[in-house]
């Protein structure tokens, strides 16, 4: 190997993680919005969130539905590493970093549980809470090295590894 | 004391000083000194001393004399009316011992007899330790463990506290609540609800520490105080994150600010606030679902199937057994194409109590690809084959993973990796470093390169670290295993709150045995015509807390709502003993009351 093949991994990860943090502003409807989350998942991907597996024929769709119901997130990648496993056509990637949640009480779809109209809260700006730590382990097809936009994730294992004491959001 | 004041204010101050002083010497001695004991409590516990033979001059002169002569400050001096002894406090045991050595020193024509007052009997120490004792007794009298309610209504009207002089001056008054919170914190009492009504509070500055003592507080009443500005709630912004209900009736703010503005501000300050003054501001069920991660029940362990459960737990246990004791024995698991790399995530969030974790031993190996862009380094930092891998292992600190003794510290996900007919194991947790690495080659090289940074010979201190480790395990012939890939992330300790069961929101209190409270003398059958509870049937301890009108309201409310005594009492207290308000509040929160809130 003369050339480092891992260069395209970083843009792929950045794209993947930032898709999880999208807000719904630019999308005409819920479907168009939700299908942006982790587009590179396969319908048959093994998805595990905090030790809970998604059990479904279409785990990608199920994951996107679930993610839609989480509070708005903001991720920052602090570290990643990867191994190409010879003869398998796959790359294993582990990512760690921090994530924080919107504590304003508004959902990703800008729904609010408020029963009264308050002119001040009309501005639906996120109120970011303290940072959590996360770990993400991915098994992806080697095609990630050439085209990172296709469905290529075989396994998606996401774990919150640190929870701040003052968190409003329950995990 | 002269009238050397600064203008008129000085005159006033001095006059007040004299007034206090006179009181201190008068027959009702304890007032002022005791109130000052709050100061003393805040600054730490002091050692009481007793001084006889001071009567040749005034008490103040004697204190000044001791300060001058012995260089020891006696504070909060007072005179015991019975023995005539002067009592005061010194900062430390050493000061007390030193002072006792001065016993016999001449002062105003007499010899001072100085002794430590510790253990000299209750009357002697009463003045000093009584501050904490008084507050503790007060707290206990106002705390209801069944309801987890701390009733702090009108504390300044409390006769015991008043008689002890807790509110004698502005300074001691302002210190009362911090002292109260400190004692409450030390008592470790569980509190869901606090009633602070009728305390003449103008802002939250004196009670600001409430949010650190009781961060999980759910119900708070501040009714009938003097709060007039909306800004005061900023003190607690995002600090009482579980506060569900707030009562601020009877405060001037309600007449001064726009009601919508008040609600908006309160909702902003308290993210889980549902009810204010009996009005429901948020849809609680919806809020709970919005403020939750999609899977709000983290599972510590995930195994794709039973077969890999057995395989992976065995593997992990024996792997880390050897990793901690003899890494050389692990080398047989790695083959020519096996890969190992480690990466350090220095910016990973971690427990606040941990500071300055040193990654010096790991950094020379770190393959954190967000930091390394050069192809050559990226490639050279993966160890391939058993020789390279073992060499790296010997250069990492020795460690202890308490997988067997403290399994709660770890979490794990395992799933099949069909491409190699193997499994992937991702393990997270914390380990302790027990000794520096055997081989310091990489560390010394890195230190050498950084020699101008002055840390050349400094060895990183050992500490706990958290880690994530991912293995690709391929079962080989005859039960052997091959580790195709091994990657390790090192980060600062992050604890196990994110997967432990205790991290859940506090659930409604479990159905508690109703103890004596419900064992009324003649328990009437429920709902029958004879079920009408009578005032006489209230348990004596409850009766003792309430006046006649309150007892009647409690009975009326219990009849109307069918709540049990515990919840009925809570409702009455939160509604300021206003029957109509009780009924309104009951209707508002009826949906969220647990089943055992009702009388059976």
From TrEMBL, chain A:
Name of this chain's protein: NTF2 domain-containing protein
Lineage: Eukaryota, Fungi, Dikarya, Ascomycota, Saccharomycotina
Pfam families: Mtr2 (PF10429)
InterPro entries for the chain: NTF2-like_dom_sf, Nucl_pore_RNA_shuttling_Mtr2
Automatic annotation (TrEMBL), chain B:
SMART domains for this protein: TAP_C (SM00804)
Keywords: Leucine-rich repeat, mRNA transport, Nucleus, Repeat, Transport
Subcellular location: Nucleus
TAP-C domain mapped to chain residues: 548-600
Domain of life: Eukaryota
Keyword flag Hydrolase: no
GO BP, sorted A to Z: poly(A)+ mRNA export from nucleus
Listed GO CC annotations: nucleus
Broad class of the protein's primary localization: nucleus
Biased composition (Low complexity): 11-31
SUPFAM superfamilies xref list: L domain-like, NTF2-like, UBA-like
GO molecular function: RNA binding
Chain positions covered by the region annotation Disordered: 1-36, 494-534
InterPro entries per the UniProt record, alphabetical: Leu-rich_rpt (IPR001611), LRR_dom_sf (IPR032675), Mex67_RRM (IPR040736), NTF2-like_dom_sf (IPR032710), NTF2_dom (IPR002075), Nuclear_transport_factor_2_euk (IPR018222), NXF1/2/3/5-like_LRR (IPR057125), NXF_fam (IPR030217)
Annotated ranges, domain NTF2: 311-490
Similarity comment: Belongs to the NXF family.
The protein's name in its UniProt record: NTF2-like protein
């Amino acid at each position: 190997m003369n050339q480092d093949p891992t260069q395209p991994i970083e843009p792929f990860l950045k794209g993947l993680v930032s898709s999880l943090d999208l807000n719904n502003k630019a999308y005409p409807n819920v479907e168009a919005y939700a299908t942006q989350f982790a587009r590179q998942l396969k319908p048959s991907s093994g998805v595990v969130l905090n030790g809970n597996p998604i059990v479904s024929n279409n785990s990608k769709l199920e994951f996107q539905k679930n993610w839609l119901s989480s509070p708005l997130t903001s991720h920052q990648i602090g570290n990643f590493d990867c191994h190409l496993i010879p003869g398998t056509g796959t790359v294993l990637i582990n990512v760690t970093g921090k994530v924080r949640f919107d504590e304003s009480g508004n959902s990703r779809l800008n729904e609010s549980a408020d029963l009264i109209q308050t002119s001040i809260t009309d501005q639906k700006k996120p109120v970011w809470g303290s940072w959590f730590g996360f770990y993400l382990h991915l098994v992806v097809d080697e095609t990630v090295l050439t085209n990172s936009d296709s469905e290529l994730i075989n396994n998606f294992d996401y774990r919150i590894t640190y929870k701040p004491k003052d968190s409003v959001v329950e995990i | 004391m002269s009238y050397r004041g600064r203008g008129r204010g000085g005159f006033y101050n001095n006059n007040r000083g004299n007034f206090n002083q006179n009181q201190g010497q008068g027959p009702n001695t304890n007032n002022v000194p005791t109130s000052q004991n709050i100061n003393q409590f805040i600054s730490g516990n002091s050692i009481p001393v007793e001084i006889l033979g001071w009567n040749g001059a005034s008490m103040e002169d004697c204190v000044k004399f001791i300060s001058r002569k012995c260089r020891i400050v006696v504070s909060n001096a007072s005179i015991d009316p019975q023995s005539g002894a002067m009592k005061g406090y010194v900062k430390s045991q050493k000061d007390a011992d030193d002072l006792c050595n001065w016993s016999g020193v001449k002062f105003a024509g007499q010899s001072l007899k100085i002794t430590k007052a510790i253990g000299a009997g209750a009357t002697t120490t009463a003045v000093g330790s009584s501050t904490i004792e008084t507050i503790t007794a007060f707290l206990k009298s106002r705390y209801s463990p069944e309801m987890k309610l701390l009733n702090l209504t009108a504390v300044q009207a409390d006769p015991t506290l008043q008689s002890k002089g807790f509110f004698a001056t502005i300074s001691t008054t302002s210190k009362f609540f911090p002292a109260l919170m400190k004692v409450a914190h030390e008592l470790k009492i569980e509190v869901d609800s606090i009633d602070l009504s009728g305390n003449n509070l103008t802002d939250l500055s004196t009670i600001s520490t409430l949010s650190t003592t009781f961060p999980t507080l759910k119900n708070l009443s501040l009714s009938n105080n003097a709060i007039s500005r909306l800004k005061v709630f900023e003190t607690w912004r995002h600090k009482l994150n579980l506060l569900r209900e707030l009562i601020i009736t009877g405060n001037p703010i309600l007449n001064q600010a726009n009601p919508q503005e008040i609600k908006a501000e309160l909702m902003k300050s308290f993210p889980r606030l549902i009810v204010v003054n009996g009005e429901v501001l948020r849809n609680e069920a919806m809020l709970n679902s919005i403020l939750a991660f999609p899977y709000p029940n983290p599972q510590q362990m995930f195994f794709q199937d039973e077969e890999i459960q057995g395989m992976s737990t065995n593997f992990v246990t024996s792997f880390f057994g050897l990793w901690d004791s003899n890494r050389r024995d692990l080398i047989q698991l790695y083959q020519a194409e096996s890969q190992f790399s480690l990466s350090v995530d220095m910016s990973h969030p971690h427990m606040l109590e941990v500071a300055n974790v040193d990654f010096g031993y790991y950094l020379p190996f770190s393959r954190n690809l967000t930091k390394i862009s050069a192809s050559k380094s990226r490639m050279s930092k993966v160890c391939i084959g058993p020789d390279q891998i073992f060499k790296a292992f010997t250069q990492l600190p020795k460690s202890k993973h308490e997988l067997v003794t403290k399994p709660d510290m770890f979490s794990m996900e395992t799933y099949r990796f069909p491409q190699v007919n193997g499994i992937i194991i991702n393990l997270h947790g914390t380990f302790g470093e027990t000794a520096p690495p055997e081989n310091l080659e990489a560390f010394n090289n890195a230190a050498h390169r950084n020699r101008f940074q002055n840390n050349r010979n400094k060895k990183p201190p050992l500490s706990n670290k958290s880690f994530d480790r991912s293995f690709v395990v391929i079962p080989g012939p005859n039960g052997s295993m091959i580790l195709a890939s091994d990657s390790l992330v090192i980060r600062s300790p992050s604890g196990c709150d994110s997967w432990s069961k205790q991290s859940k929101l506090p659930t409604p209190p479990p159905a508690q045995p109703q103890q004596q409270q419900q064992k009324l003398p003649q328990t009437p059958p429920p709902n029958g015509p004879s079920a009408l509870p009578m005032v006489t049937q209230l348990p004596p301890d409850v009766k003792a807390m309430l006046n006649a009108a309150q007892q009647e309201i409690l009975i009326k409310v219990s009849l109307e709502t069918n709540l049990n005594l515990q919840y009925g009492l809570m409702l009455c207290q939160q509604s300021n003993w206003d029957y109509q308000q009780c009924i309104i509040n009951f209707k508002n929160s009826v949906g969220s009351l647990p089943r055992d809130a009702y009388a059976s």
